[in-house]
């Protein structure tokens, strides 16, 4: 008899615990109230655009926020500088969302459970189906835009941009490409451990650049992960491999690099990898 009572009480406590959790989640699910464009255009290629997602609820905290379709007729907004150099980049950028994920993304005034940012990059137009979604740590979510019944305006996702000729509009003849360059002369050949320096976000002609660094150096971001540019930091003694990847455009050939070390090119079909090696000293 005592065993039966113990089992019954245990089941009751389990059910009450589940009821409390369900009540806590359902009593305060996240609800998107509005979406603001905090920065102001007109924007140029490489500029950062920051949005603020205003919401209520979401206890005990927000797990992720996602924005899809932000941009203009000639530019997309992206967080994916690591995709630069892909031949089919235009189709990828238009459907790549801006995203913040707890414990994975940076937390600052550019990237958080309220703010999402991206850089302006030329494309054949942002994804027409605009959508914003927010999910809390219990898995409850809210979304506005395409495919939802919400009437929350997403007009703030449309940005004002300056004209660019990096990409040729569909139906027009592409021009003959001209030369471009990138200067890295401000980076010493043998930097000291702990030395930091900002890397360029754009080539001299205005094409976006993504950088990677290996071995004794790394790239830090003040804005959001996989932004353009970044801060090159020399962490320890040894060789530092610095590798740029520049967006393919209709206007420019891949740039020439002017640096205090040799920037070597390695070709694999149509893909070109550029590597410069710096020797880090004390």
What is the gist of this entry?
The protein is mostly beta strands and 282 residues long.
Percent of residues in beta strands: 35-45%
Give unreliable regions as ranges: 1-25
**Can you give the mean pLDDT?**
89
Number of beta strands: 17
| Alpha-beta content class | mainly beta
Shape: globular
Calculate the terminal CA-CA distance, rounded to whole Å.
77 Å
Topology:
Layout: H1 2-27, E1 31-37, E2 48-56, E3 62-68, E4 75-78, H2 89-93, E5 98-101, E6 115-122, E7 131-136, E8 141-145, E9 181-183, E10 196-198, E11 209-215, E12 217-220, E13 231-234, E14 238-246, E15 256-258, E16 263-268, E17 271-280
Parallel strand pairs: 9-15
Antiparallel strand pairs: 1-2, 2-6, 3-5, 3-7, 4-6, 7-8, 10-13, 11-14, 12-13, 14-17, 16-17
Task: Write structural notes for this entry.
This protein has about 280 residues and is mostly beta strands. The protein has 2 domains: about 30-155, Sandwich (Immunoglobulin-like), CATH 2.60.40; about 180-280. Helices cover about 10% and strands about 35% of the residues. The protein contains 2 helices and 17 strands. The strands form 5 sheets. It has a 4-stranded antiparallel sheet, with no helix packed on it. A 4-stranded antiparallel sheet has the order 5-3-7-8, with no helix packed on it. A 4-stranded antiparallel sheet has the order 11-14-17-16, with no helix packed on it. The longest helix has 26 residues, at about 1-25. The chain starts with a helix and ends with a strand. About 30% of the residues are buried. Residues about 1-25 have low confidence and may be disordered.
